[in-house]
Design brief:
single chain, 8 helices, alpha/beta, five-stranded mixed beta sheet, Helicase, Ruva Protein, domain 3, DNA damage, zinc, metal-binding, two-stranded antiparallel ribbon, Dna Topoisomerase Vi A Subunit, Chain: A, domain 2
Amino acid sequence: MQLISETLEQAVEQLARLPGMGRKSAQRIAMHLLKQNDEQVLRLSKAIADLKKNIRYCSTCFNITDQDPCPICSSEKRNTGVVCVVEEPKDVYVIERTREFNGRYHVLGGVISPLQNVGPDEIRVNELIRRIRDGEGIKELILALNPDAEGEATGYYINKLAQPMGVDVTRIAHGIPMGTDLEFIDDATLTRAFAGRRNF
């Protein structure tokens, strides 16, 4: 159904392209924005523009950041000997929310998935191995990958490369249901999963 205004229709179309956003939700947001004063709408549009303009990947861990290296990699309070390996930047935020992990991170940017034609060279495994070789003092990798076939395959591949280098490879415990993304796990379950990690 075409809306009354072409401008409103374009806004709804763009909002509906966002993940998890249907047309009805997009219409509600567009109508809500119309009720807001100009300053509120301008602040939102500036925040969105700044997000695209200022956010980049940390050159060390590949988390998203507005400074390089990111605050986690820059912090002297973090345990540099333990690196938590995750699939996406959103997983860093999920784990940080628990306040249980005090090491550093490595964001792979995906997982090995032969069905999707994603091999080890398409994700940041080589960069992880380079971090180990370059003498960052990494003693343990904690694999916090989604508990599905791709996460397992990626974990086995990393383990195969890292163990001969004298690095312990552990993974968070399987209290997390198979096929579930980390972002949907509650803090208590994720905290227990970290406490119950085991060798790969």
